[in-house]
Design brief:
The protein is about 40% helix and about 25% strand. It has about 475 residues and is an alpha+beta fold. Among the domains are: about 50 residues, no CATH class; about 80 residues, PH-domain like; about 55 residues; about 90 residues. It has a seven-stranded antiparallel β-sheet. Strands 13-12-11-16-15-14 form a six-stranded antiparallel β-sheet, with helices on both faces. Strand 1 and strand 2 form a beta hairpin. Helix 6 crosses helix 7 and helix 11 runs antiparallel to helix 12. It is globular, with a radius of gyration of 27 Å. The N and C termini lie far apart (about 60 Å).
Length: about 475
Amino acid sequence: MHTATFRQARQLVPALIPIAAVTGFDDGRTTIVVLVAAITALSLLAAALTWWRFSYADGPTAMVVTRGLLARSVRTVPNDRIRGVEVETPPLHRLFGLVRLRIDAAAGSVGVSEEELVVDGVPRAEGDRLRERLLAGRAVRPDDGVAPEAPAEEVIARFDPRWLLYAPLVGSYLVVPVAAVGTLFRFLDELPDGLLPDVDGPDLSDTQLVVGAAVVALPLLALAAVVGAAVVNWGFRLVRRGGSLVAVRGLLTRRHTELEVDRIRGGTLSEGLGMRWVHAARVNALVTGLGQAHRRGQLLPLGPRPVAAALLTRLVEDPGPLRPHPPAALRRRLVRAVSGGLLVTAAGGVVLSTLGWWWLLVAGGLLTVLGVPLGIGRYSALGHRAGPRSFSVRSGWLVREQAVLQRRAVVGWQVRQSVFQRRMGLATVVACVGAGSGGYAAVDMAADEVAAFTAAASSGTWAGALAG
């Protein structure tokens, strides 16, 4: 399986490129065939050695993974530090009846994009056993002769195919086809001239041709976004099974993510600019110690905002409607939004008087006018609220995110004030939590409300200390 996907050999491709550059592509297809054969052979050898030197053990108290040929790596994670387990089934894994397990621990990732533990290429039954074993945190008794009773399932959310129509308004789904087209053009540019047909490029000076290409490209881009969303989210189901939330999704690569309910400290409701136009949103769970929370903690990838809000309420108690921030926050947002346009307008006035160029002055005036709704929109996104058992903060304009957290999730508070904020009586309060991004901010709230809000949004000795 690793040989067919060139998993190990892909790391050797950068080393082969200089060799190919020195030898050249004079032989055309023969050189490419030789390179493909060499990469395949190296992939087979690397895959065999990796498989030979890989082992794992799930003991009563810890999970241990050993790998590496020359540099041996042994990773040990206690079972009580495991926060989530994701089971992936890519198409090739499915063909061989195998799965890939990604195990998240509270200690965080070893690298920037590397998971704490990965067990790749085990049978489906073994993957299910490991997932249940690691999340349950209990010893397995295979010889007691009594099969454990499967917990009842409660379906919380199910993806409606009609929600795929939201995909063209979501930036993350639009980026994938654009990146794919860019990669294709880059690949074609790197190919030898002998392998490409002799075709003249389009005349970009022809306005009708450019407009026609845009008219054709935009629907294709929207269709590609819908297809990409379908591939990632097809068959999405969110169920509660005992003490866990289980999310299953994917058309080609099936992903099975299981999170402990007791580890969930809240959730976020995200709305991009395009999503707000059609009243759509997505929901992520905030789980203590969970890495890559935006992907692993995703409980609703895309859907109507009322459905997303109802799901967020099931995760954590709604603290109530958000309190707006003071008018000084609106003035600060307007000043920051129009300042760039005013600078361009001033520069345009100088250029008009000296060189006679008027277009810079017009551009500055347009930017200044557009800055007003931008500032108002950024202000309307602000808000905070502290309830009996939870609190909420919201900010953002291109992507508006509202975080609702349990009071017990707070491990600390950070209050920031710039010189301009102090003069306007404002402050930014960051709730430091051990979940999600690690901190969620109430931007530009009234400075005299900071003490009351932090005390009301804290629990136990925190509230008493802050109130005092």
